[in-house]
Each structure stands twice: as C-alpha cells, then as structure tokens.
TrEMBL record:
GO terms for molecular function: polyphosphate kinase activity. Residues 102-208 form the Polyphosphate kinase N-terminal domain. InterPro entries: PP_kinase (IPR003414), PP_kinase_C_1 (IPR041108), PP_kinase_middle (IPR024953), PP_kinase_middle_dom_sf (IPR036830), PPK_C_dom2 (IPR025200), PPK_N_dom (IPR025198), PPK_N_dom_sf (IPR036832). Belongs to the polyphosphate kinase 1 (PPK1) family. This is Polyphosphate kinase. It comes from Streptomyces olivaceoviridis. CDD domains: PLDc_PaPPK1_C1_like, PLDc_PaPPK1_C2_like.
C-alpha cells in the first residue's frame, strides 16, 4: 500500500472510463515557463566575419612551419540554422498551458530509484546482479539525500525556497520525500532479507550475522580482529570531559553503552567502523559476515573497553549535506578555494540518521539530540545497515550468477582486417565519420586509441581536451601527458567541480600541469560538462582538424558500463566549431553561435525549442513531423512547454528518459500525443539524442546535455548535428526500438506513476534492447547466442 503523501497538484479525473486526466488552465501567478527566446543564430554579418579567419587557432605552435587550412572557406560557413528563420514559435492561440502540468522532480527521482529496486526484486534478474541493484539503490539514495534533500533543507532554512514547478510548497516536498523514501527503504530491506539473501544462500553465498557463525569461524575472526582491526579502532567516550564526537557522513558507527562496575554509572561511547576495511569479511569459504558484527562481538568490545561491562551496542549511520558552494567570483584561485571547501564538506549538517530497528530508545534520543536531527529524519531498519557493501558480494567470481560476459569489439569502420597492427584512425576518419555506441563498441580501440595515436604522432601539433570525470589510472591522462612531454601543445579543460570527483580531478589537474599541459578550469560560474576532443595535425601543406564529440565522460572503466554515443570526424565545420569553443573556454571570446554545434548556456535551449516549434509548422503543412528525445532527465519547463505545444498541434512526441521526468503524458488536450518510456538494465543508459522529422529530411543531434536547468543555464554543454544519412537512420532505429511496445520498458502515466512492461499478453518476455544490441555486435563477429 502506498503511503498518504502529498501529491503534486493532483488534477481532476477525466470522463469516466477513458482514463484521461484534465488539467486546469494556469492562473496568471502560476509558475508558467517563459516563452522561448528568439534564437541568437549567426547573422550574415557574423558569416562575413567568420570568413576573415579561416585558419584554425593553434596558438603559437609550429610557427615556423608552412600550413594552410584543409578546407575551403565556404566549407566553414555556418549552416546551422538555415531555414529556421522562416519558422516562428508555435502559436498557442492565446490559451495558457494548464496549471499542474509538471510532475514533481523529487518524486520523479524517487520513482527512478524505485525502478532500480524493481530490478533487484525481479527473480528473472541474475542473482548477483540483484545484489548489485540493491547496492546501486542504496548508493543512489545516499547521493539524493546528500545533495537534493540537503539543498532543499538549506533553502528552507535560509528562506529562499519557493514553490516548485509542480505546485508543491518546499515543506510539502520535504515531507513527501521523507514518507516515500521510508517506504522504499523498507522495501529495499525486505528484498534483501526475504529474497536475495536466502537465494544467495541457496547458491552457497551465505551472508550471516555473528550469532550464526560456528565456534571455529568466530575463533578465526577473533584472530583477524586482534591483528588487523583492533589496531585501527578508536573508541570515543562521551562525558563531561569528552564532548560528543563529530560523526562523518556515510560512516558506519557503533553506539556502545558500558557500565563502570565500581561506580555503577553507565556511559555512552562511539566506535567508528574503519571505512577502508572490507565491508563483508569471509569467515570461511562462502560465508560472509558484516565487519560491524565482528567489532561488536562481546569479547571484541571487551578488548576496546577493558574492565567495563558491555550493556548494549547498536549500529547507526549519518548522511550529511555534502554539496559544495564555492563563490567563484570572489575566489582568487579556484583550485585552492575548492580544496578549502572540500575540507568543510565533512562538517555539513546531517540530513538522515539510519539506525538498527532494535536500538534502545534512550540511545536513539541521545543521537537525535546530539546530532540535532528531527524524528522525521530517523530511519529505523533491520540490520545490516549500508547495503552498498553488496558491491563487494557482486564482485565474487561466480559468472553463472551474473549477466553473460560481453567484451566490446572494435567498431567496424576502425577495424584493421588486413594485419594485426593498430588501425590508422586518422586515415579512417578522412574516409568517413564514425558513430560510436559504447559499450557495444570498444572505447579503448576508438576514443582512447584516437588520443593515444595523436599523442604519439609527430605530425600532430595540438590536442585540446575536456575532462569531467576519468579513472584513477586514466590512459587518457597518460596520453595527454605524453603529448605534452613530446612538445605538442596540450590544452586540458579539467572540471574540478565535478560532484564527488573533486579530489581526483584536482589531483589530475596538478599532474597535467606538472607535465607541461595548459590546464584551465573553464568559465566562472559555469561547469564544463561537454565531452570534446580536438586534434590538430599537419598534413603536407595543410592543417587538418580531427574531432570527437560524445555523450559520456572520457572514463575507460565506466565506458564498459555506461551506454553512450560519440562522433569521431574530420569534418572541417566540426573542427572549426571546436576550435572556437575551446578558445572561448580558455581565453576571452563572446562567440555564441556555431556551425554544427548547439552550445549551452546560450543557444542550446533556444535551438531545441525552435526545432520543436518547427515540427509544428511541418505538421500543419502536411509534411513528416515528429520529435524524439533520449535523455537522462527531462525537467526544463521551457522545453517541456514546447513539447506540450507540439502535442497540442498533433505532432507525435516520444521521450526516452532514464531518470527524472516532469512531463505528464497522455493528458487530454495537452499531451495525448506524448509517450514517455524508461529503460534500465545491465548498462546505465546515458546517451542524449534529439531527433526531428524536419519535413522528411530528419535532423539528429547527440551530445552531453540533459534537459535540466543546471545543464542549460549553468553548464557548458554541446550537441553536435549528425549529418551522415546512415548514422541518422541508425539513431532513429535505436529510438524506434526503445519506444516500441514490444521492448521491455517502464511507461509513464499522466498521474506520474510508472508501470513496468516486461512481458506480452501471453506472458512471454518482451525484447531487451541492450541484449539485442549485444547480440547484434556478436553476430558481426560470428559469436551470437543461438
């Protein structure tokens, strides 16, 4: 049963029997999104100015070498918005869009995490993958509280919180989060205790508590405790001489109550579970026990509190506000300011207290009082707490309990079939653009190889690169360092404010600087989130630019787990666009329009809204028209309102979203032509695609931007237009497959509820789009499943 929690502006029911939802017209003071601004597209004067600067900007490199641009000037003339000037914003006939048309974004995020939980609950999901989804659910919820809930509480406390676009007051949103997350966390714990853990035991993987261990196992773990755990433990007493200790965010702790046998006084102490130790310890082959159980064993606690009587102990865990606030305008050095803020992050106020449901009331009251947390933020749960530890269990070498192994192959346009030597990626790109689809196409033999070849090639003069997230042992970083050390000009945009990767990115920024790379941190007030690489190469008497524009990070490890797209190209327009954009990011430039790019925060939202409105004109003229969008999140009101207008005009709109979606599909008179689907699976759907019917000449874009305020207003994001007809067709086929009723997915209803569609009317499993793509790659290599 679902709890009675505040709903976002519930609309009245439609006529009986038709399942429709109707919404009231918006009041004049309702949160109606602004009308899309007039596009700042490049004018004829801009075109002429562009013609005066045909050569690529490569700074001072190779000034002694003769070179020219590997394209005639006409090839670089902007054509991005040709034909759009004849189209105006879709008319609304003066009728305002209705009130309550936006779903609440926080509730939508919780619904996304519920879909993750449903995969853990699904008995058809491989068993260790179910454990993995339980860990992902827990990790997702941790971040949600650290960022979204913490931010909402901060805005309420400072008096700057306003009514959300869904119509809810800030306090209503917070209370809805508390109620909904409590329900989901209870389901999560039940799935572990009643389903996944027993099923794992049937497969010889026993997750047990201390009392379930044999005497031999306990003796073995006592030896382990004495030699490897006890030395790093620090019990902290609480009394007049010892104030209540600071409890770090996401740390697992033991609240211990002891009694002095001489005085008879009871005392409270806290023991922190060392975060660097293994979460589940192997007591014997196939039997694992939580580390806090080992620490809390009676004879083990006696080692920590000799001479005291151990009365009780309880596990608890705190989640704190860990979002960052750096005033960039006032910071003399952004790197130093961020490092200082990272130190303060550990001391953010608490936003959630998880406790074992068996906790003594007196101990709980002490924690609530000392941590200054409300009862609504206390979550009693059956132990063990912190099931992110199941990531460790998922890593066990039991392939029969996981998804079948898949090893990505080299993209067929990059594969070298005549010899075992590495392919010449530059030669391949001179022949054709290459559209990559990770993880089905190997990242290491495409994007990584592209940068490694550029670093080693003596004819490459410059490499320009954005880095938002990358791995700790990144071959991308190594290639950039090699290029700099060989004398090439290397510019790296390191986004040191990438959430929860700040420490790693600061480390790599310093390493790149020490190697001689030019490291910059983007523009003040904006995160650099676009995924771009630019290589400038001397070829005879000319310079040629090679580019990569992607939807995902330059992270070799996550490229095997995240679904992403990327375009490798030698197209001179894309190369010129990237040169202009990098110059804007590294220097002083006011360029806001490009040839084959849409760039936030200036032109991306307006460019997409104009194209959505253009589809209305095509539809009214009887030409082919549609809008198809695949994103992680769909929240931006201006874009959603444009989609509503398109739906009202009769344009079919398909939205494939992984996470948050504020669109209400299927509302009579507003969105009956809008369908919303979500797909979750073994890979994290991460690519962003925007496709338009365009009167029979389809237009398709890929890039880094989700439809959220932060992406469109506070980040540098880039979309690139895909021009190859085969690539456009392939992307439209992908969108068709994802939206098909024969594909397993979740469907969003007008009431904001998601319904899973995993089987057909006969109970047979629907197609899994990820498995279909895996099998397609295997067929190319002759290794498809029968």
């Amino acid at each position: 049963m679902k709890p009675a929690v505040p709903e976002p502006s519930p609309p009245p029911e439609g006529p009986a029997g038709n399942g429709a939802v109707t919404l009231r017209p918006a009041r004049s003071d309702a949160p109606v999104s602004p009308v899309a601004r007039k596009n700042g597209f490049m004018s004829q004067q801009d075109t002429q100015a562009e013609v005066q600067h045909p050569q690529p900007s490569v700074g001072s490199i190779a000034a002694h070498r003769q070179h020219a641009v590997a394209a005639v000037v006409s090839d670089l003339e902007p054509d991005l918005d040709a034909g759009l000037d004849t189209y105006e914003e879709a008319p609304t006939d003066g009728a305002p869009l209705p009130q309550g048309r936006f779903l609440d974004r926080e509730r939508s995020w919780l619904a996304f995490n519920e879909r993750v939980l449903e995969l853990a609950e699904d008995p058809n999901t491989p068993l260790l993958e179910r454990a993995n989804f339980l860990a992902i659910f827990a990790s997702n919820l941790d971040e949600f509280f650290m960022v979204r809930v913490a931010g909402l509480k901060r805005r309420i406390a400072t008096g700057v919180a306003t009514r959300s676009a869904s119509g809810l007051q800030p306090r209503e949103v917070l209370e809805m989060i508390w109620a909904r997350s409590r329900e989901l966390m209870a389901r999560h714990a039940a799935c572990y205790h009643e389903d996944v853990a027993p099923a794992l035991a049937d497969e010889g993987i026993h997750l047990v508590r201390w009392s379930e261990l044999t005497d031999k196992e306990q003796a073995r773990l006592f030896t382990l405790f004495r030699h490897q755990i006890f030395p790093v433990l620090t019990p902290l007493a609480v009394d007049p001489a010892h104030p209540f200790p600071y409890i770090s965010g996401l740390s697992l702790n033991l609240a211990v109550v002891v009694r002095n046998p001489v005085s008879g006084h009871k005392h409270f102490a806290r023991v922190k579970v060392p975060p660097l130790l293994t979460r589940f310890l192997e007591a014997s082959p196939g039997r694992y026990v939580p580390i806090e159980d080992v620490i809390a064993a009676p004879n083990h606690l006696e080692e920590l509190f000799p001479g005291m009587e151990i009365l009780e102990h309880h596990a608890f865990r705190i989640t704190r506000n860990e979002d960052l606030e750096v005033e960039e305008d006032d910071a003399e050095n952004l790197l130093q300011a961020l490092e200082k803020e990272l130190m303060r992050r550990r001391f953010g106020p608490p936003v959630r207290l998880e406790v074992e449901e068996s906790i003594d009331r007196e101990v709980l009251d002490l924690l609530v009082r000392e941590l200054k947390i409300s009862e609504a933020e206390v979550y009693p749960l059956p132990g063990p707490l912190d099931l992110t530890g199941l990531f460790r269990i998922h890593s066990l070498d039991r392939p029969e309990l996981k998804y079948p192994k898949f090893v990505a192959g080299t993209h067929r346009d990059l594969a070298e079939v005549e010899s075992a030597s590495a392919p010449d990626i530059f030669a391949a790109l001179r022949a054709r653009d290459v559209l990559l689809h990770h993880p089905y196409d190997s990242f290491s033999t495409s994007v990584q190889a592209f940068l490694e070849q550029a670093a080693a090639d003596p004819d490459v003069l410059a490499i320009k690169q954005t880095l938002y997230r990358t791995s700790g042992d990144s071959p991308i970083v190594d290639a950039l360092i090699d290029a700099a050390e060989s004398g090439k000009q290397v510019l790296v945009l390191v986004e040191i404010k990438a959430r929860f990767d700040e420490h790693a990115n600061i480390k790599w920024a310093r390493k790149l600087e020490e190697a001689g790379c030019h490291v910059v941190y983007g523009l003040v007030g904006l995160k650099t989130h676009c995924k771009l690489s630019l290589v400038v190469r001397q070829e005879g008497e000319t310079l040629r630019r090679y580019s990569h524009v992607g939807t995902g990070n330059y992270h070799p490890k996550t490229a095997r787990l995240y679904e992403d797209l990327g375009l490798l190209t030698a197209d001179p327009q894309v190369g010129a666009d990237l040169s202009d954009l990098f110059n804007r990011l590294s220097g002083y430039s006011r360029r806001e329009t490009y040839r084959r790019l849409l760039v936030a925060p200036k032109s991306l939202r307006d460019g997409l809204v104009a194209r959505i409105d253009k589809e209305v004109q095509h539809h009214r003229a009887g030409r082919p028209a549609f809008v198809r969008i695949k994103v992680n999140s769909m929240v931006d009101e201006a874009v959603i309102d444009a989609l509503y207008r398109a739906s009202q005009a009769g344009v079919p709109v398909d939205i494939w979203v992984r996470g948050i979606c504020a669109v209400r599909p299927g509302v009579t008179g507003l969105s009956e032509n809008i369908r919303v689907r979500s797909i979750l699976g073994r890979f994290l759907e991460h690519s962003r695609v925007f496709a338009f019917g365009n009167g029979g000449e389809p237009e398709v874009w890929i890039g880094s931007a989700d439809m959220m305020h932060r992406n469109l207003d506070r980040r540098i994001e880039a979309l690139v237009r895909v021009v190859d007809p085969g690539h456009r067709a392939a992307l439209n086929r992908l969108l068709d497959t994802g939206m098909s009723d024969s594909t397993a997915s979740w469907h969003l209803g007008p009431d904001g509820e998601w319904t899973r569609h995993a089987t057909d009317a006969d109970g047979q499993p629907l197609r899994n789009v990820q498995e279909m793509l895996i099998d397609a790659r295997r067929r190319r290599r002759g290794t498809a499943t029968p």
